[in-house]
Specification:
CATH architecture of the largest domain: Orthogonal Bundle
Radius of gyration: 29 Å
Number of domains: 2
Strand order of the largest sheet: 1-2-3-4
Strand content: 5-15%
Structural class: alpha+beta
Shape: elongated
Distance between the termini: 26 Å
CATH superfamily of the largest domain: MetI-like
Order of helices and strands: HHHHEEHHEEHHHHHHHHHHH
Number of helices: 17
Largest sheet: 4 strands, antiparallel
């Protein structure tokens, strides 16, 4: 009897809290019931965190300063805890030593014919991969150490103020030499560290692009929807003109135009980000304009006018916030598409270029036939890129359903 009474009371309390909860709380509650969205959200937060703190998680400097000249084109160095020599509570990797190249020119020096030359070239002695083979010394373990001191990096900085906090603390490393979990490229740069840094570069470009897009969409949609009339007609004509132009050829044309200027990597970085955001405002701007056209005749807008509120205050403090949930969902859903465009431009050589670490730059390097045949570990950025895109897609779908109150079904 008492159990039934308490259960009814708890159900009543749950119902009261549900009907009195705010819009954001309802979205969060619906999102938590999406298992796929929660799993993808965990993966996404993990990738963003690792990318943001990439210097801390990277055991090797990803720039030219961290080149390992003794381990060029080196294969991944796996971490183990046991082998034929026994079990170890401390994770370890082996010592790798470059084998001396075996280039036998005796036949050619003795006046050998073309057959001797063919034998020399077909033997692989002149192949770069054959000249970069490494012997694994399984009896020489290098134990992993955590929270080690290594190369110095900027932990936190405020632009234009000179405020900068630097650190040399890293999550893990080895006592002697360097550890390359995902191998190295032809120059000796660590693939694992470059990929971690590329995550944040790619995501930050998407963030800047979407901020520019959001500001342009709010400005165009808010002004056009609130004032209407000729202002609406002119702005929507410009918006439609932008929409009918194919985006990819436009991006390619602007990228080629940017290539004519001697831009620093930072300037090129922000130019691409602003370009991606400025040309993608039309769809969200039109949706916002339609919403404001409907809402501008509501009673609360009339009350704000009677209280003496200016037009800009009504737009930004009353009309735009009523569309906030959709704006957030649309922005998050567009994240993977912006990342795909930036990655595609960099992949084609029209965006960021080496030595900048972005996923597009790393994917461009992976298309080399020599890498495909002899260095497959350089496809590690591809795995990270696919995981990042899929995480954004699943989170965006779950958030879109959570933000739609009509998507719920009565059980």
């Amino acid at each position: 009897m008492l159990a039934n009474l308490f259960s009814k009371s708890a159900a009543s309390t749950h119902d009261d809290s549900y009907y009195t909860a705010g819009q954001f709380a309802l979205i969060v509650a619906r999102f938590r019931r999406k298992s796929a969205g929660m799993i993808a959200g965990t993966v996404l937060v993990s990738l963003i965190t690792i990318g943001f703190f990439a210097p801390f998680f990277s055991p090797v400097d990803p720039t030219v300063k961290g080149i390992d000249s003794d381990y060029r084109r080196g294969a991944p160095q796996p971490v183990k805890m046991w082998d034929e020599n026994g079990f170890s509570w401390r994770p370890f990797t082996y010592t790798y030593e470059k084998e001396k190249p075996t280039l036998d020119l005796s036949a050619a020096l003795k006046g050998g014919d073309l057959a001797a030359l063919d034998a020399l070239t077909s033997s692989g002695a002149l192949n770069a991969s054959e000249q970069n083979k490494f012997a694994v010394k399984r009896d020489e373990r290098r134990y992993l150490q955590f929270f080690v001191r290594g190369w110095e990096y900027t932990l936190f900085s405020i632009p234009f103020t000179g405020v900068e906090i630097r650190s040399d603390l890293h999550l893990f490393g080895v006592a002697s030499g360097q550890i390359h979990l995902m191998g190295t490229d032809a120059a000796g740069k660590d693939i694992f560290s470059r990929t971690l840094h590329a995550i944040w570069v790619t995501i930050s470009i998407a963030i800047v692009a979407l901020v520019v897009k959001l500001f342009a969409s709010l400005l165009v949609g808010g002004v056009s929807g609130y004032f209407g009339g000729r202002v609406d007609a002119v702005i929507m004509s410009i918006t439609e003109a932008v929409r009918v132009i194919p985006q990819l050829p436009m991006f390619l044309a602007i990228s080629v135009a940017l290539a004519q200027f001697e831009l620093t990597p930072v300037q090129l970085y922000f130019s691409i980000a602003v370009m991606l955001g400025a040309l993608d405002f039309a769809a969200l701007g039109r949706r916002l304009r339609t919403h404001i056209l409907t809402e501008r005749n509501q009673d609360y807008v009339l009350a704000a006018r009677l209280c003496g509120s200016s037009n800009w205050r009504i737009i930004w403090r009353h009309l735009v916030p009523s569309f906030t949930s959709y704006i957030i969902v649309d922005t998050l859903i567009n994240f993977p598409y912006v990342i795909l465009v930036e990655t595609g431009l960099s992949f084609l050589g029209l965006g960021l270029t080496d030595p900048i670490n972005s996923l597009g730059v790393l994917l461009q390097s992976a298309q080399d036939p020599d890498i495909q045949q002899n260095m497959p570990w350089q496809y590690f950025p591809v795995v990270v890129f696919v995981s990042l895109i899929m995480a954004f897609v699943f989170v965006g779908d779950a958030l879109r359903d959570a933000a739609d109150p009509y998507s719920e079904r009565n059980n």
